Amino acid sequence: MTKRFAVILAAGQGTRMKSKLYKVLHPVVGKPMVQHVMDQLSVVQLEETVTVVGFGAEKVIETIGDQCNFVIQEEQLGTGHAVLQVEELLKNREGTTIVVCGDTPLITGETYQALFEHHEKTGSKATILTAIAPNPTGYGRVIRNAENEVERIVEHKDASTEELSVKEINTGTYCFDNQALFQALQHVSNDNAQGEYYLPDVIEILKDASESVSAYLTPDFEETLGVNDRVALAQAEKTMKKRINESHMRNGVTIIDPDNTYIGLDVIIESDVVIHPGTVLHGKTTIHADAEIGPYAEITNSTIGEGSVIKQSVITDSQIGEQAEIGPYARIRPESILGNNVKIGHFVEVKKSTIGNDSKVPHLSYIGDAKIGTGVNIGCGAITVNYDGMNKFETKIEDNVFVGCNSNLIAPVTIGKDSYIAAGSTINQDVPEESLSIARARQLNKEGYASKIKKRK
Ligand code: UD1
Ligand code: MG
């Protein structure tokens, strides 16, 4: 097999994005566009990948640093000029170079592979990946001759009215014979509407030199979207979201409303999970079988155990056991570990706490820096008082404790197992196991006193 190389064009500022962030670093489903390109390229066997950077070079290198080599394009004089920057690295290497743009995040590895195969099979010096665009505005158009052979590519801004009506577009992805590419690039000029050195001009140059040029027309235009502005960015997001959701559905996940469900690329979901509308799953999240998520749950870098139900809640960097019930309106903050059959009800916040199996925090509580055992019941409105304004302290609540409503547990404090805390208590000393602790003012009833007050009025 001929050796394969890749050049990723990522030096442009992306003026049309109107952003501080360099275009290729704009995320699609949370991952920078250029990283999508790198990941999909990994499907084809590459000898070497070189990314051309310029605007925001440092940031781009920081993002994909260890995955490829870089060359700097000091001035952004066009895509042809960008490819020339890798000449020293590649011109003497025999093989095929795929050139891809850093702003086409949806092209799949399978399509890259199909393009290589077409190029190798036809023995062409250049093969363009093309697609039929329902609305080709902004793209370079593929101009074919009477024999239907590719003649050249004309940029939108340079095209005649007739050429503008062509729907076959240049996706910005090409396979080239290395030597032919760098020879042809010597002849590219910047005599065009944008005053740039266009890479697509190489096609006409090769054709004029009687070299064979072909096109591989991919049936899926959606995949080839070039993201030049925020409108296209939203389209890319939508397409990627659809792709991800459909793959989960095919794997046995029910997604009630795929248009309103947002699942990150690294999320793992087992079969028979049901996802309700408005759910957002980010990062390294795993949802085990038979769980029910949403509506309106946002879960980041967390694990949800088998059969658990998570309603309208936010869960971050935490682990939830099996058959647990969370929400509605609960917030589970980082480093929380909740056991099996745990119940966290509405308006409960849990932070950096462990809650053992079968424990319940059903209503209006704050649990922070706590270690709670199994079978514990935390009454409505009870809270851990974990912060004195300077330091955080730990609350330990051992197995089978019952904490009455509206209690304050002032940390550091330990509630021994099987104890009861009377409602409304403020506990600032350890409670021995199997005790009842009451820490509130005694009630005093002054009988008949109400009439005295009324008389004063
Ligand atoms: C380009 C193609 C167009 C094609 C479209 C597909 C050219 C002249 N036009 O247009 O035919 O239909 O992609 O999406 O190639 N870049 C550099 N250095 C530069 C200029 C650009 O590295 O000097 C990089 C950009 O960062 C970007 C890529 O090349 O990732 C493409 O540049 P862009 O300005 O987006 O070209 P388009 O106008 O989209
Ligand atoms: Mg573009």
Automatic annotation (TrEMBL):
Cellular component GO terms, alphabetical: cytoplasm; membrane
GO MF term set: glucosamine-1-phosphate N-acetyltransferase activity; magnesium ion binding; UDP-N-acetylglucosamine diphosphorylase activity
Region spans: Linker: 231-251
UniProt enzyme class: transferase
GO biological process: cell morphogenesis; cell wall organization; lipid A biosynthetic process; peptidoglycan biosynthetic process; regulation of cell shape; UDP-N-acetylglucosamine biosynthetic process
Chief subcellular location: cytoplasm
EC number per UniProt: 2.7.7.23, 2.3.1.157
Domain Nucleotidyl transferase: 6-216
Binding-site residues for UDP-N-acetyl-alpha-D-glucosamine, renumbered to this chain: 9-12, 23, 73, 78-79, 140, 155, 170, 228, 333, 351, 366, 377
Pathway assigned to this chain's UniProt record: Bacterial outer membrane biogenesis; LPS lipid A biosynthesis; Nucleotide-sugar biosynthesis; UDP-N-acetyl-alpha-D-glucosamine biosynthesis; UDP-N-acetyl-alpha-D-glucosamine from N-acetyl-alpha-D-glucosamine 1-phosphate: step 1/1; Nucleotide-sugar biosynthesis; UDP-N-acetyl-alpha-D-glucosamine biosynthesis; N-acetyl-alpha-D-glucosamine 1-phosphate from alpha-D-glucosamine 6-phosphate (route II): step 2/2
Amino acids binding Mg(2+): D103, N228
Region described as Pyrophosphorylase: spans on this chain: 1-230
InterPro entries with a match to the protein in the record: Bifunctional_GlmU, GlmU-like, GlmU_C_LbH, GMPPB_C, Hexapep, Hexapep_transf_CS, NTP_transferase_dom, Nucleotide-diphossugar_trans
Domain of life: Bacteria
Gene3D superfamilies: Hexapeptide repeat proteins (2.160.10.10), Spore Coat Polysaccharide Biosynthesis Protein SpsA, Chain A (3.90.550.10)
Mannose-1-phosphate guanyltransferase C-terminal domain ranges (all copies): 266-355
Annotated localization: Cytoplasm
List of residues binding acetyl-CoA: N386, Y387, A423, R440
Binding note for cofactor: Binds 1 Mg(2+) ion per subunit.
Region called N-acetyltransferase, residue ranges: 252-457
Subunit organization: Homotrimer.
Functional summary from the UniProt entry: Catalyzes the last two sequential reactions in the de novo biosynthetic pathway for UDP-N-acetylglucosamine (UDP-GlcNAc). The C-terminal domain catalyzes the transfer of acetyl group from acetyl coenzyme A to glucosamine-1-phosphate (GlcN-1-P) to produce N-acetylglucosamine-1-phosphate (GlcNAc-1-P), which is converted into UDP-GlcNAc by the transfer of uridine 5-monophosphate (from uridine 5-triphosphate), a reaction catalyzed by the N-terminal domain.
Family the UniProt entry places it in: In the C-terminal section; belongs to the transferase hexapeptide repeat family.
Protein name according to UniProt: Bifunctional protein GlmU
